[in-house]
Design a protein that fits this description.
The protein is an alpha/beta fold. The protein is built from four helices and three strands.
């Protein structure tokens, strides 16, 4: 399935895919565990397609916690790439807003 999707994206975009991004974050709901699951996915895709992982991105705290877990578990850095901290600017949905405020 991943290989098929890869080929379809390459064909439609008429571009080579030169790197993968672990973007397994869920904005304010993201956790280090989400990034860890993303690590497992991009690792297997990277090995399958022979494409390097370029970045792992997430909000500051989950990203820091993931990187700490990665060091402790001795995860391979080549499947993490460069850590890329993101800041969320989008408004939350109404339920989150009423429960948590701005």
């Amino acid at each position: 399935m991943v290989a098929d999707l890869y080929e379809r994206i390459r064909y439609r975009a008429r571009l080579e895919i030169t790197g993968l991004v672990n973007n397994a974050n869920l904005s304010v709901l993201a956790s280090a565990q989400d990034l860890l699951r993303g690590y497992d996915i991009v690792k297997s895709v990277s090995d399958l397609l022979k494409i390097p992982v370029r970045y792992t991105c997430g909000r500051a705290e989950p990203l820091r916690a993931f990187l700490q877990m990665a060091r402790e578990r001795k995860l391979e850095e080549k499947y993490i790439g460069e850590p890329f901290e993101i800041t969320t600017y989008m408004h939350r949905d109404w339920d989150s807003f009423t429960q948590k405020g701005i």
